[in-house]
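Please check the following for our workbook:

***
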Amino acid sequence: MNNNNNVVALDLPIPEISDLPEDTRKYFEICQEKLGMVPNVLTAYSQNLPQLEGFTRLYNELMLGEGELTKLEREMVAVVVSSENKCFYCLVAHGAAVRVLSGDPMLGEHLVMNYRSAKLDPRQRAMLDFASHLTRSPATVAEQEIQALRDAGFSDRAIWDLSNLVGFYNMSNRVAIASDMQPNPEYHSQSR
């Protein structure tokens, strides 16, 4: 076992990749091939394999599954939720993804600091306004917020997917913050 202090501040029994079950090792190898790294969030979750499986299944469905939201829009939501929560890990990781997917290094920075200052189309603005509101004041979300999304062209299914995405990143942010999860150094220089 290797307690990798570069991943989280908690004293967790994080296993070496070679000690993981074959299916998990293969998943990590795919990450290494596609991303050039195994994201630290996966390394941290590897100390509890049922949680790792649940996390990755939900992440993959929300971020890569079928739906009306583009990959870039999903990453933009992750950044705005993480900005509201001040989650360093997710801001760095998903900010890098926004830079890569958009080809615009400034967009990721705008979303991190204040999405309201970014040049967004009306659909994106409505989506991020909703993500921010649902994160900051979930009990105050009412029909007017849902109608604003409909008016911007979102179907009720897309609103469902967006709400799940916002919920997922609020959960992930809280785990990353509580464990002082550190982003992989590779994220800092992507698309700069």
